[in-house]
Amino acid sequence: MNVLLTLRVAWRALAKNKMRAGLTILGVVIGIAAVTAMVSIGQSASGLVQSQFEMLGTNVIVVLPGSHRRGGVRQGMVNTLTARDSEAIGKDCPAVLAATPLVGTAAQVIYGNSNWSPKEIHGCGTDYLLVRNWALRRGTFFTERDLHSRSKICVIGQTVVKKLFQTADPIGQTIRIRNIPCRVVGVLAEKGANMVGEDQDNIVLLPYTTVRKRIHGSNFDDVHAILVSARSVTEMKNAEIQINQLLYERHRIPVGETADFVVQNTTEIANVLGIITGTMTLMLSSIAFISLIVGGVGIMNIMLVSVTERTREIGVRMAVGARPRDVLRQFLVESVLLATTGGIIGFILGVAASTGATALINAFTPGTKWPVEISFVAAIAAVVFAALVGIISGLYPAILASRLDPIEALRYE
Prior knowledge:
It is a single chain. The chain is of the alpha+beta class. Helices cover 56% and strands 19% of the residues. A hairpin with a 2-residue loop joins β6 and β7.
């Protein structure tokens, strides 16, 4: 009996009991659909995490102030970083591409009769756009001359443009920040929301010297944070080590003492979040595999019933020349067809479920843009695993059918 004929006979046998065949593969359909959906949603979550950290900037390392000790007593959080630390990191750390200090503030921004409170108002250095991997849509950015002269200029994000200027051209216009007039010299390209839904375009950037002196009224050199860009992903660990060594020396921290700064590698944070999402996906997928086991048990049961119902048919086939291996192959093919059909249907439903879930997440959380990730590896694995479930589940009933005595089978009523 050739393969095509075996398949035709198998389809014909299954088609005689469509309802029973459909209910038999239901467990496989649910299991494969659940696994496919979980893997796809997990990959979407991992992709979102990676893309959000890429939006933070190019290979970004964040240096924050730590606790300060005086006479062995912890003084709490203080501004222990300076703009000179940022300059030293940029010049003396070979693995660092660029660094920029950050000085934050909060205020209303006023233009004419309109006012708006940006989410972020940052004083920064000339390399801020390089570190953040952020382009200018229009205009120019700060220069070293603007930093030295504490120029009253600013660069604004798209949200601030829409809130204050609507359709007017903001370049060259003057806005007021705490009654300090600042001329708009540039507009940032749109960056969108981050992974927690915060609008990254709701931002105003000024020279850090302007914020420190003119807005804060401070003559000190301290800054709130330093953003650093490593030369490449592979250099991030080296950059982190070099920054630690440099700041230990500059801050004259004795051996064994706690540093008064904290260096955070965003790649490591992204990797940790990736591990968490991967673990959750694996756990949920493992639970979904239980449905596959249930589906396999269902296939085995129905094939055993089929062997009993078709005992006389088996006897007739053997009487006209069918060999035991032909009977074995026939029942095995039927079992694999059931499981594979369930696997294909389950994969299609799983893709639809993951796409629908992603659409719902994006609809209810407008700030986030979950990518739709369909794993072709998961598709192949789903169908192959379903076929294996069919083989394993149908093997015993097929062996049982092939070992029937033709004479006894013909007498069976």
